[in-house]
Amino acid sequence: MVPVVIALGSNVGDAVQNLQSAVDQLREFVHELTPSRIYQTAPMYVTDQPPFLNAAVSGQTDLGPLALLAQIKAIEQRIGRQTRERYGPREIDLDIIAYGALHYRQDDRLEIPHPRAGERRFVLLPVSEIAPGLKLTKINTVEDLLFATESQAGDVLLKNNALLSVHRHQ
Question: Is 95 an annotated catalytic residue?
Fold first, then answer.
């Protein structure tokens, strides 16, 4: 089993339900899930869209990196993600932030650690709750990178201390 960290985001439809549905499906192949709290985030890059809800989960998987990517892309499709402009609105977005200590690149499909995680407070803040010592570069931890994104602090706000459930729903 390999430790993984996955970031989640949604700003189309019932965003909380979309995040919860993703976690429910991740549980099938990511074990010992630990969720962060949910954050409301101003959109980055394409700003003319609703705010996002963002969270992260950590856990353990026996899937390889490409198999994990295929599974999370399948979850996005099942939740109804539509193809839109890059950085635009989305029903659900799942990104592999870390896969053990692996540094990996497979053409444009997958790069681990996620290449832009360190510049995105909406990723760093939830990840800091569940994996604060995680190194996203060869020298910088999530906590180090959070300090560097302090200018985005007003754009990422805690949403009611809400946690996603990692337990089976009846």
Answer: yes
